[in-house]
Amino acid sequence: MKLLDNPMRQLLAIILVAGLSSPTLAFDLDSDEPITVSADSARLDDGKGIATYTGAVELVQGKTRLTAERVVLYRSAKGLNRIEANGSPARYQQPVASGEGETDAKARNITWSASDKQLTFEREAVIEQNGNIFRGDIIHYDTEQRVVTAAGSEDTGAGPGRVEMVIQPRGSSNSTK
């Protein structure tokens, strides 16, 4: 079933897109601010355009931050085009477009693709924003079309494996964090 098949899912998309709608969601390659990477160790394969960082990895650009146990950066002749992060969990944080609050996303795998204009959160994905929570096994965010899609995991008997959301009431103190 697609995310926008019913009114509740449409509401969720509106809530998430309102906060995730900044065209600079993820790392902004057109920014004047550099992306700074720190880690316990690094390996650069300049011929293939792949840099692998391991051990308490932190990528920072302005107020956007990605932390993980392992991060792989892929670059082409045009520059950085893909970031893959893995952790228990990996964590992505960025101020919301309105400037009030922060998007705090966690997943075991986080992938950012410049060519696809897509952020993907996989395995135990949770996105929190101003008290609103969205959980799923896989959450995709198309940064250009501003479309969020999500899927639950297969029901293995350990839990329902469904997509879940918590939406704070407008007057809640959590909605203004």
UniProtKB/TrEMBL annotation:
Compartment(s) where it occurs, according to its Swiss-Prot or TrEMBL record: Periplasm
UniProt signal peptide: 1-26
GO molecular function, one term: lipopolysaccharide binding
Main location: periplasm
Keyword Transport set for record: yes
Top-level taxon in the UniProt lineage: Bacteria
Gene3D superfamilies: Lipopolysaccharide (LPS) transport protein A like domain
Keywords from the UniProt entry: Periplasm, Signal, Transport
Stated role: Involved in the assembly of lipopolysaccharide (LPS). Required for the translocation of LPS from the inner membrane to the outer membrane. May form a bridge between the inner membrane and the outer membrane, via interactions with LptC and LptD, thereby facilitating LPS transfer across the periplasm.
Protein name: Lipopolysaccharide export system protein LptA
